[in-house]
Amino acid sequence: MKDANIARIATHVAELYEQAMQSASQGSLAGTIPNGWVDHLKVKGLYFRAEAQQRKSMSCLASSQYGEEVARLQAAQEYCNQISELVSYDQRWSKLLRAAVLEMVKSQAELVGSNRTRAEHDNDVIYLDPVPAISSLPDISPYKLAESKTPEIIENPGKFLGGEELGPPLFKGLVPFVIHQAASLYEDRKDQLVSKDLITALDELTADCESVLNSLNMPHALEAIKKPIGLPPNILVGADEIRSDGGYIGIKRLLDSAIVSNTRANELLDAAEKALYDEAQEDQRVQQRVPKGGRQAKRIESAELTNKFRAEIAKYRDVINRARESDATIKAQVDMWSQFFSLLGSPRDEIERQVPSTTANPITDPHHSQIVGRLQQYMDEITLMKRERAKSTEKLKRVANEDDITPALNEEMQRLAALSATPILQFELHQFEDLFAQKLDKYMTWRKYIDEEREAQLELLDSIREANQAFLVARSNHPLLQQREKALSNLETAVKRYREASFNLHDGARFYVSLESELQKLKGGCLDFAMARHLDALEQLGLSHGETPTDLAQAPEQASNAAMQQPNLVWDPTMPLKYTTPK
């Protein structure tokens, strides 16, 4: 691009910066634009003025207008000097302006200065072209690269309100507060009707149905007939869990570990209690040996100092006893169901072989088959009824969730406003009671549906009871079926008992780990206390460690002598220190 065109573009850019600076410092925007922005706009405006003159001088040089070239560079120098004066006059400019802008201004001033020196020298020595005054230089006409055009959505935003561009008005849905109160009141009444009355009634019907079927052992009794070879899924899943846990051997191992942990906890507690007992015995001997007038009055009796330890020992003793009782209960349960646990830990084929089956002795009685078919038909009907009831419950919840009374409240408010004789309106909640009743009336059909469901269920359950009674009579003639049902019931119970015992034993293992840590701390505290009291007893008697009498050498633990006789000596903090001179 030619220098003359660049000069025109720079002039237009300078005008834009000057307009922006004027808008920021005057008019409605004054005081809202930070000062740093205004200073930046002013410096950039002067910079592009200087750039326009410098570029115009380069155009003059190319067209051999040497005098105008010098004048243009002088004008550019004046703009650079104005920037320098502003920055050097007020130091805040150098802080507010970015370093890149200051560096740009500095580079421009150096370029203009060097070009002016060259141009003046060449013109004075070679060209001798008259230099016009700066004020007589023709203006550089600005050139706009783009025409500014305000978008129509900015000039007339109301035209686009409610359309895709701006969307609906922000406060279009703003309604009186009483409408919100009325909507909230309706939601409460609807929730009370739907959730508390209708859905609860449907759930109670289903629960009553399940209760009756469970009392009749349905459908397990039919499954024993329809699928005599296979095992119910819950038993198979439970057997897989038991097998992965190690079966009876695994749970027996956990039980033995719990018993060992309980014994170890008792031993720790006994050791702590023995340390206190030995210290109390030593304290009695010290009180008897100290002569009259001695320092025994300063020695506090052992019972006064060990209350805290003995309270903790009693507390942990109770905890251990209760844990032992719990372990005994679990052990009794494991022993009672050990045969079933061992069977459930076996492969599936072995479990199926142990469960009585009608495969070897199939039931061929036509009368029995007819009774079983009729009972199965009733069970299919009750299953279908429960499935359809669940779908109806979901439909009722969906209808309630989609029931929004707000539009109806707005229409009612407009209707009441149209009937009002005064423009000043005041709405009350009781004015919407008729609307509430009208909206809630559609749920009354569900009450009729619930009554119909209750009547149909009672009738169907009566039929199931009657068919089940006939089924029981017919089944009583085939003892193999009873044996199979009993076996399946025992296996289901065994799975539950195994899960309970496994959970309790794993929980007990974590309990014993925590308890043993606490008992170790308690034992250490008792031993430290006994050693400190023993050393204090020696000081009371005025004896050194090597002069300890025979009876005190037994305290605080009489087992110390036996320990001293062992070939591998291990220091015990409860033993008195005794130094001997090596021979």
Structure report:
The chain is mostly helical and 583 residues long. 72% of the residues lie in helices and 0% in strands. The protein is extended, with a radius of gyration of 51 Å.
Question: What order do the SSEs take from the amino end to the carboxyl end, as H and E?
Answer: HHHHHHHHHHHHHHHHHHHH
Q: Estimate the strand proportion.
A: under 5%
Provide the structure class.
mainly alpha
Biggest pleated sheet = none
Number of helices: 20
Number of E-state strands? 0
The helical percent reads: over 70%
Average pLDDT, to the nearest integer? Answer: 81
Q: Which parts are unreliable, with pLDDT below 50 for 5 consecutive residues or more?
A: 544-583
Give the overall silhouette. extended
Tell me the distance between the termini.
112 Å
Rounded radius of gyration (Å): 51 Å
Observed structural traits:
single chain; 583 residues; mainly alpha; 20 helices; 72% helix; disordered C terminus
Brief description of this entry?
The protein is mainly alpha-helical and 583 residues long. It has helices at residues 3-25, 35-62, 66-89, 92-96, 99-127, 152-155, 177-215, 220-226, 233-244, 247-289, 302-305, 307-336, 338-344, 348-354, 366-402, 406-419, 433-440, 444-475, 479-541, 560-564.
